[in-house]
Amino acid sequence: MQFTGTDSYIADRDLMVAVNAAIRLERPLLVKGEPGTGKTELARQIAQSLGLGFIEWNVKSTTKAQQGLYDYDAVSRLRDSQLGDVRVQDIRNYIRKGKLWEAFEASERVVLLIDEIDKADIEFPNDLLQELDRMEFHVYETNETIKALHRPIVIITSNNEKELPDAFLRRCFFHFIRFPDAETLGRIVEVHYPGIKQRLLHSALTRFFEIRETPGLKKKPSTSEALDWIRLLVSEDVEPETLAANPANALPRLHGALLKNEQDVHLFERLAFMARREMR
Asked: CB-side exposure of 134: number of CA atoms within 13 Å?
């Protein structure tokens, strides 16, 4: 079972090595990197490449680890008991399976994505240690143990918003997705927009990396934002020459696809103002 990338996902050698190592070790793969570098999409592409099912658990700030196992709806059971509903006789009617339970009971091996784990409380990763290690958990309400029929391939993503506990990190195989260089980003663009004019692609990538490397930028544009921007350039049939940096008008064409806060827009406006003043 080897991951070698897909036609729609450009994976470099280091990333493929990390994925395959995690599969062989039967460890969760913890993937970090800038937002928009394809961390979430990686899990989907692994499932597609290996022909496996895919289960996604999106973590929020209010998410608790227990929700990934199951949720016991005691309130509904109490209400039904007051109404004389016969369903109350079986407590299983009030247990909702979580994403880990779904992955554990799947008839075939699946890819389980735990997306943006760093959004949750700091205790969230520690609360999953035993379940991810042993691939089983206990349901106290029914006094049964749920064991994984097939060990899922677990992909965990983090945007580095907070540090993860050492005990959790020890149990993971780690990979940091670096921002792609111009050549790799060009390959990614060509996958999404086959047949793109090479002059436009070269000019767009040159300007894009100039913007990313601008000192003082609060939020650097990501891979996904580069794809959105180039999609607009293609649809507008923009001439490559018009994308070159212009000191007197530093804001790039269709900049709303790349600059996502007013501080960065003002930064480019100030640069243009200073350039015009020096040209007088």
From this structure: 11
What tens digit of pLDDT does each residue of 17-47 get?
999 999 999 999 999 998 888 999 999 999 9
* Cβ proximity of 70 and 139 under 8 Å: yes
pLDDT tens string 129-149: 989 999 999 999 999 999 999
pLDDT confidence of residue 86: 81
pLDDT at residue 272 is higher than 90: no
Structure tokens at 27: 């460890």
Q: How far apart are CA 88 and CA 78, in angstroms?
A: 8
Give the separation between CA 233 and CA 110, rounded to whole angstroms.
Answer: 38
Classify each residue of 229-256 as buried b or exposed e, where b means 16 or more C-beta atoms within 10 Å of its C-beta. bbbebbeeebebeebeeeeeebbbbbbe
- Give φ, ψ of 258 to 5 degrees: -110, -40
Q: Is 189 exposed, middle or buried (0-12, 13-18, 19+ CB in 10 A)?
A: buried
